[in-house]
Write a structure and sequence with these properties.
Blueprint: E1 5-8, H1 12-23, E2 28-31
């Protein structure tokens, strides 16, 4: 599987970045060490 953007860390900055990229039509992989939902 290929992604346009890989964001490491799903904190406030990572989540905002991932969402912004996805809203612009990019495929995004968001990675975090924690399991969601927590």
């Amino acid at each position: 599987m290929r992604f346009d953007v890989i964001v490491v860390g799903a904190g406030p900055a990572g989540s905002t970045t991932a969402r912004g990229c996805a809203e612009r039509g990019l495929s995004v992989l968001l990675l975090d060490k924690a399991e969601f939902p927590s």
